[in-house]
Amino acid sequence: MHLAQLNVAHLLAPLDSPQLAEFVALLEPVNLLSDSSPGFVWRLKGGPDPTDTVQHDYGDELVINFSVWESRETLWNFVYRSRHLAVLQRRREWFQRVAAPYSVMWWVPEGEPPTLAEGMARLDRLRAEGPGPEAFTFKDFFFNEKLVP
């Protein structure tokens, strides 16, 4: 099994605004970093340009990051132990603060990337029911019993 993760962020301004110019400039290096990180499996891409964001029907000001990793450890290392952390720490410059969970994880069979609709449904489930085996977070993590001896 692999670990799917989806996170969403509500922009403070349109992507083409001067306020988000630094964020857009960081998309390519962060995406290249994720794609080359140990344990990276798959990422939903917005298009051929490394700065393209995922196109969706969930609102114009919503940015979506959706990926699959080999394990909790490999995702954790990318998020918190790579150059990605410096970008993550600046999120309040570009995104609205939200009280509801904005990130969700769940286990997927190897070789079967999840759909965006599934990811958004998992996020909705986490928001409605709290963490559980079908939708969880780093803080309230559910290990796959097939992976744990």
Q: Kindly state the mean pLDDT as a whole number?
A: 91
Tell me the overall shape. globular
Q: Give the uncertain stretches in residue-range form.
A: none
Number of helices: 4
* Order of H and E elements: EHEEHHEH
* Structural class based on helices, strands and sheet pairing: alpha+beta
Largest sheet: 4 strands, antiparallel
Helix content: 25-40%
Radius of gyration: 15 Å
Q: Tell me the span between the first and last alpha carbons.
A: 14 Å
Q: What is the count of β-strands?
A: 4
Strand order of the largest sheet: 2-3-1-4
* Beta-strand content: 15-25%
SSE topology sketch:
Elements lengths: L1 E9 L10 H16 L3 E4 L18 E8 L2 H10 L2 H5 L14 E6 L7 H14 L20
Offer a concise description of the structure.
The protein is of the alpha+beta class and 149 residues long. The protein is built from 4 helices and 4 strands.
What would your notes on this structure say?
This protein is α+β, with helices and mostly antiparallel strands. The chain has four helices and four strands. It has helices at 21-36, 72-81, 84-88, 116-129, and strands at 2-10, 40-43, 62-69, 103-108. The protein has a four-stranded antiparallel β-sheet, with helices on both faces.
Considering the chains and any ligands shown, give keywords for the structure.
149 residues, globular, 4 helices, 30% helix, alpha+beta, four-stranded antiparallel sheet
